[in-house]
Amino acid sequence: MARHWRLSVPNVIIQFLHIQDSVLGELASRSINFFISKSSKSKVLDVEDSMQRSLLRARVIIDEAAGRHITNHAMLQQVDMLRDAMYQGCYRLDAFRHLYHDDEENTKDQVVSHSFSLSKVNYLKGICSSNRNTQTLEQLQDALDNLSSIILDVKELVVFLTSYPCMYRQPYSMHLLLGNCMFGHQMEAELVLNFLLHTQPNGAEELEVLPVVGPGRAGKSTLVAHVCNDERVRGHFSEIMFLSDDDLKDEKLTFLVERCMKKHQNSLLNKDGRMLVVVEAAGDINVDEWKRLYAAAKRCMRSGSKFISQAGQTRSQSLGR
């Protein structure tokens, strides 16, 4: 019995040493992971907080730019770039929060296993999760750097924004109601405004014409009426005249020409006596009648006067000059 006891002593010692190595290795790995997680967590919070503040600043700039009548195309491109970077930052921040906080909750809820083999499996899972979090954090940092760089580039834009007038907020006249759907047409209104407020070079003899074409009940009259009610348009033209296709007939056209001649004589003392003529037709405008109206207008209307024609889609597009 004594000899059997002496032979079994080395086996006990070997098993004890294996257990000791396992415990020490587990403690070392847990300690290292603890210190790494503590140091990386502060970095994660810093990046997350910086992204939140940058997104808020970008949102303020974009909202302010959206409420201004900006005519500089380069500034509009900068706003688009900032908007794209903001959306990219929002996406990266949401993806990181979903991945990082889910892994953090899983780590808290995980039951500590006393088995060495299961501990190794959990350790490998932790490595994979850490690599995934690191990659997502790098993507978030890249998005933050890009957004911060663009915000610095638009410093001049923020300064110049105050020099552009605010857009007029008229929600009922700025939307098209088609059935149960509502569509905004702010872009079309801005195009018409740019056409009307654009000043021709000195000596230009041709009167500019903007055809507004489209099917019936598409909102052409609503669009033009809103633009004509704009204070900038009313201040730019001395008179706004609305005509229908019936007014282009011979007898009414003669009366219209006489009226324009009187207006022209009265506006000789006013250098800015420009007129805006809006012609609305139920269908297509008769080309011959339009030519007579245009020829008469060139004789009696001052330079800088303009036409807007509202009609169908087939032949009315050729009326623009």
What secondary-structure arrangement, pairings included, does this model have?
Blueprint: H1 2-66, H2 73-109, H3 116-153, H4 155-161, E1 175-178, E2 181-184, H5 186-197, E3 208-213, H6 220-228, H7 231-236, E4 239-244, H8 250-266, E5 275-280, H9 287-300, E6 306-311
Parallel strand pairs: 3-6, 4-5, 5-6
Antiparallel strand pairs: 1-2
Question: What attributes does this structure have?
Answer:
321 residues; alpha/beta; Rossmann fold; 2 domains; 9 helices; 6 strands; 10% strand; P-loop_NTPase; Rx N-terminal domain-containing protein
Explain the overall architecture.
With 321 residues, this protein is α/β, with parallel strands linked by helices. The protein is built from nine helices and six strands, in the order H-H-H-H-E-E-H-E-H-H-E-H-E-H-E. It has a four-stranded parallel β-sheet, with helices on one face. It has a two-stranded antiparallel sheet with strand order 1-2. Helix 8 links the parallel strand 4 (239-244) and strand 5. Helix 1 packs antiparallel against helix 2 (73-109), helix 1 (2-66) packs parallel to helix 3 (116-153) and helix 2 packs antiparallel against helix 3. The protein is rod-shaped.
Largest β sheet strand count, sense and barrel closure: 4 strands, parallel
Shape: rod-shaped
Distance between the termini: 118 Å
Summarize the amount of helix as a percent range: 55-70%
